[in-house]
Amino acid sequence: MRVAHRHGPRGLKAEDHLSFYATRFDTVEIDSSYYGPPAAATVDGWYRKTPAGFLFTVKVPQVVTHEKVLVNCEAEFMHFLKTMEGLREKLGPLLFQFGHFYPSEFKDGSEFLSRLGSFFENLPEGF
Based on CB atoms within 10 Å of each CB, which residue in 64, 79, 101, 119 is the most buried? Predict the structure, then answer.
């Protein structure tokens, strides 16, 4: 398996990295979405720069996973999903990356899993 360099091929402009990667890989993970949903125009650009059959894995924003830890984050999460819908059939997995949990947040793993299960039960159809 070939792994892409984080900053792209030498000599290639940043705006051309995705098009280049799309000629060599079938999928990429979008890490920048962790810091907040991108603009709709950015998502549309990602869609246009990739061929049919290409898939994006997008990281769920930190406000959902770290700041609110799946509680009272419906507005932020729905905004994120609405933005990512611009990838249409190229939208693949949603990546939920969580930080370290302290005993003050959850008594044990089952408490977190219960919260996660409830969150996933409320995902809109198609996600």
Answer: 64
pLDDT at res. 6: 56
First-last CA distance in the chain? 28
Task: Decide if 91 contacts 56 (C-beta within 8 A).
Answer: yes
Strand pairing category for 91-95 and 55-59:
parallel
CA 87 – CA 89 distance, rounded (Å): 6
Query: How many residues does this entry show for the chain?
Result: 127
How far is the CA of 23 from the CAs of 17, 26, 27, 31, 58, in angstroms? 10, 8, 10, 20, 19
Beta strand 27-30 with 55-59 is parallel
Is a pLDDT exceeding 90 seen at residue 98? yes
Q: For 31-66, write each residue's pLDDT tens digit.
A: 999 999 999 999 999 999 999 999 999 999 999 999
pLDDT value at residue 8: 65
What is the pLDDT at residue 1?
A: 43
Q: Which helix (H) or strand (E) holds 84?
A: helix 74-84
